[in-house]
Amino acid sequence: AQKITQTQPGMFVQEKEAVTLDCTYDTSDPSYGLFWYKQPSSGEMIFLIYQGSYDQQNATEGRYSLNFQKARKSANLVISASQLGDSAMYFCAIGDGQNFVFGPGTRLSVLP
Amino acid sequence: DVKVTQSSRYLVKRTGEKVFLECVQDMDHENMFWYRQDPGLGLRLIYFSYDVKMKEKGDIPEGYSVSREKKERFSLILESASTNQTSMYLCASKFTTGVSYEQYFGPGTRLTVT
Question: Cα–Cα distance between A27 and A4 in angstroms, integer?
Answer without folding.
Answer: 9
